[in-house]
Design brief:
- The chain has 461 residues and is α/β, with parallel strands linked by helices.
- Among the domains are: 74-209, NAD(P)-binding Rossmann-like Domain (Rossmann fold, 3-Layer(aba) Sandwich); 256-426, no CATH class.
- The chain is built from 17 helices and 19 strands.
- The chain has helices at residues 41-55, 86-96, 111-119, 137-149, 164-173, 194-211, 219-223, 228-241, 276-280, 304-313, 319-334, 343-365, 391-394, 398-405, 407-410, 431-438, 443-460, and strands at residues 3-10, 14-21, 27-34, 60-68, 75-80, 100-106, 124-127, 155-157, 178-180, 224-227, 242-244, 249-251, 256-261, 266-271, 290-295, 368-370, 373-375, 385-389, 423-426.
- The strands form 5 sheets. A 5-stranded mixed sheet has the order 3-2-1-4-10, with helices on both faces. A 5-stranded parallel sheet has the order 6-5-7-8-9, with helices on both faces.
- Helix 10 (304-313) packs across helix 12 and helix 12 (343-365) packs parallel to helix 14 (398-405).
- The longest helix has 23 residues, at 343-365.
Length: 461
């Protein structure tokens, strides 16, 4: 009898599930149900599991793995030493860990600075500062400030390795849950995101999921393995790289860009080959060639008005179109569950999504200095594949999909380096998150899933 693993994404709006054959890596079936945040998120899980049982009566659903962005996902505050160095490094690492970075501070924490951090309502604090063997005064001082304030969320320490033990002791004496990781910036020009990313994931699973009171059932914490964006990035990395085993190889697609348009945010993921010329001129904080950015003001429902405002600022629309779109966007903010009831409403969603895609790609790829946190920019010219994800893509017509993805190859006024000759596709069944969940223990299955669901499907298109 066929055995399958069920990969579940507890999203902010919908709970999605995919049943994947543990031998072939084939997607056997998918299901979705509204996320039951108003009762217990496991009610939505029970609904999608029931759908899968009906669709696959002869399949044994042997294992469940889940990721979650329900209840606001993972909110992270970054406390660093210098804004242009360790705070910037922490910011980039936080995004790669699937977090929404809600606060960044640098230098010695004052009472006002701690109050601003608390006001951001983070789920986790990432405390960084100094290279290994460098100045530890600010890092230690900030640990004392956090301990004195009794910050009521876990802290991941990923700063100067020589001071790490002292910082951990200070925070624990203040009653704070602490998780130590290797320095995100062990030396100038070298960014090491993986240990901190792993620590943030562990904190999310152990503390944040339960702390959001999403369910009274203990199996939720057992199922959840990552924040949804973290799982998706892992899936994108595997799609790009492929997988090599002892007697099998699953080819990847090379450089890839994913644009995920949601109701609340628009996220852009990219996995690109380091540019040799750029690598030869190493920056103070090394570029993350595998990264994600999240645009919290660009969402086709909760933040539809933000799309209009951002598009006007980017000169993608004029005042007349802004006046026309604003009431339509406001309607979506007031009714996030709104479904288009005709061609006109569907066209509004396509227009908003197209503007969100354009703005999000510009912010992800062009150099910028937003609030003192500098982004060096990403060269996406060699991206071989551009993927659209989210309900607007999944339910859009072929013409609508082409319209929404067009900015990825035509936005010459955006100030960023566009993919030159990419193929395009849609993650129709949200398999990237599923692959990211499978990758740690079933990498062959995950790679085959991506090959069959995205790359082979792409060739057929």
């Amino acid at each position: 009898m066929t055995s399958a693993v069920v990969c579940v994404d507890f999203g902010s709006t919908f709970t999605k599930a995919a049943a994947v054959d543990l031998d072939s890596g084939q997607l056997l079936a998918g299901a979705s149900y509204r996320t039951t945040i108003d009762t217990d998120v496991m009610d939505g899980f029970d609904a999608v599991l029931s759908q899968l049982h009906e669709l696959l009566p002869d399949v044994v659903l042997s294992e469940v793995r889940a990721c979650s962005s329900a209840g606001g996902g993972l909110r992270l505050a970054v406390v660093g030493y210098e804004r242009a160095v360790t705070a910037e490094a922490g910011y980039r690492v936080g995004l790669s860990a699937g977090s929404r970075v809600v606060h960044v501070s640098s230098g010695a924490l004052t009472g006002d600075a701690v109050a601003a951090l608390v006001k951001g309502r983070p789920d986790v604090v990432l405390l960084v500062g100094g290279t290994d063997g460098g100045n530890a005064e600010v890092l230690v001082g900030n640990a004392r400030a956090l301990a004195k304030a009794g910050v009521a969320v876990p802290v991941v320490v990923a700063g100067n390795g020589d001071a790490s033990d002292q910082v951990v002791r200070i925070l624990r004496r203040g009653g704070i849950q602490v998780h130590a990781a290797a320095n995100v910036l062990p030396r100038i020009g070298v960014l090491d995101p993986r240990p901190a990313r792993d620590a943030i994931r562990d904190v999310f699973i152990k503390h944040v999921i339960g702390g959001k009171h999403l369910s009274q059932r203990a199996d939720l914490s057992t199922f959840v393995k990552a924040a949804t964006p973290d799982a998706v990035l892992a899936g994108v990395e595997l799609l790009a790289d492929g997988w090599v085993g002892d007697d099998e190889r699953v080819h990847g697609c090379g450089d890839v860009v994913l644009i995920d348009v949601g109701g609340a945010t628009t996220d852009v993921y990219s996995v690109v080959t380091p540019d040799e010329e750029a690598a030869a001129h190493r920056e103070v904080v090394e570029t993350l060639w595998r990264s994600r950015t999240v645009e919290g003001d660009l969402g086709v429902r909760w933040n539809a008005v933000g799309i209009v405002e951002a598009a006007l600022k980017e000169r993608l629309i004029d005042d007349d179109e802004a006046r026309r779109l604003t009431p339509l966007a406001e309607r979506r903010v007031g009714d996030p569950g709104l479904l288009p009831d005709g061609d006109d409403e569907a066209a509004v969603d396509v227009r908003l999504a197209t503007l969100a895609v354009t703005t999000a790609l510009r912010r992800h790829a062009r150099p910028s200095d937003d609030g003192g946190v500098r982004q060096p920019g990403k060269d996406l010219r060699r991206a071989r594949l551009v993927i659209g994800s989210g309900g607007v893509f999944r339910h859009g017509s072929p013409d609508a999909v082409r319209t929404m993805l067009t900015p990825a190859v035509t936005d010459l006024a955006g100030g960023w380096r566009l993919p030159e000759r990419p193929a395009t596709t849609i993650d129709d069944h949200y398999v990237l998150a599923a692959a990211g969940l499978l990758a740690p223990d079933h990498p062959r299955v995950a790679a085959r899933l991506l090959q069959t669901a995205l790359l082979r499907d792409l060739a057929a298109r």
